[in-house]
Design goal:
By secondary structure, this protein is mostly helical. It contains seven helices and two strands; from the N terminus they run H-H-H-H-H-H-E-E-H. The chain has helices at 6-39, 48-75, 78-105, 109-118, 128-141, 164-168, 190-231; strands spanning 172-177, 181-186. A two-stranded antiparallel sheet has the order 1-2. Helix 2 (48-75) packs antiparallel against helix 3 and helix 3 runs antiparallel to helix 7 (190-231). 20% of the residues are buried.
């Protein structure tokens, strides 16, 4: 005990507290995403469940690793610190392996999503599940069609029709319908709005990944230094003491005086 510098131990403890908070934030983001998706009727969106599970797992693992690191620092347990160090090395490599290609592919995300959505057109002949999701998005986002109202052909659904509030804000357009009929539908299309939220989620995910990578690298440095101090206690930083320059010094020599002899 007492082999690790006290200042370093406090820094490492604060780091692990922050690391645990990051894990809690990741879990909170996953929970919030799940609630918002359910409210907006996105239970049929592909990949939603697997993405949320990944966020929950990453958040829980982050909190567990932070607890192990804090325990290792508090008890000066070398095994716990080595486990923490190994987790930091693996975590940093994984985050960089995921984050760098994802950041490079972000610019191509819009083209990939547009290509995938155009495959389901026209919407009026798409699968029932696709039409249900499109209807729900149009009702929620106040838009009509993925790229145009013509995505529905001559079967424009009621979810495209403007309400009074949208009409008062001039967010509607009058379109021809079945040659002799007209409908008042939303001007906005759904794809730009969908793309905005997809990029927002992608940016949040990239931020989480690179934040975890930076924290993992910092955790590697701190835990390595603590393990080194435990292995070589004599190499730990020594507390310097300033000599008392003005303290009274004993005389280098004392002059001997023979006591006077009386009676001589």
């Amino acid at each position: 005990m007492g082999q690790i510098n006290t200042c370093l131990k406090w820094i490492f403890t604060i780091f692990n507290i922050f690391f645990a908070i990051v894990g809690g934030v990741i879990i909170a983001l996953a929970l919030l995403s799940q609630i918002i998706t359910n409210v907006h009727g996105g239970e049929q969106l592909e990949g939603r469940t697997s993405g949320l599970i990944i966020l929950y797992v990453v958040g829980a693992i982050t909190m567990v690793i932070a607890i192990v690191g804090a325990y290792g620092a508090h008890k000066e347990n070398r095994v716990a610190l080595i486990v923490f160090l190994v987790c930091m090395v693996i975590g940093s490599l994984m985050m960089l392996r995921i984050g760098i290609p994802a950041a490079m592919a972000r610019s191509e995300l819009e083209d990939l999503l547009e290509e995938r959505l155009r495959r389901v057109l026209p919407l009026n002949t798409a699968d029932q599940d696709v039409r249900n999701v499109a209807d729900k998005l149009q009702e929620t986002l106040h838009c009509c069609g993925l790229f145009s109202y013509t995505d529905w052909g001559q079967d424009i659904p009621n979810s495209c029709l403007c309400n009074q509030q949208a009409e008062s804000l001039h967010e509607c357009r009058l379109v021809n319908y079945n040659v002799l009929m007209q409908k008042l539908v939303y001007k906005k299309t759904c794809f730009p709005i969908i793309m905005h939220y997809v990029l927002l989620v992608a940016d949040i995910m990239l931020g989480v990944v690179f934040t975890l990578a930076a924290l993992a690298l910092l955790g590697m440095a701190l835990s390595s230094l603590m393990i080194y101090q435990m292995r070589f206690p004599s190499s730990a930083p020594m507390v310097l003491t300033v000599p008392a320059v003005f303290s009274p010094q004993p005389p280098k020599y004392q002059e001997l005086h023979n006591p006077p002899e009386y009676g001589r």
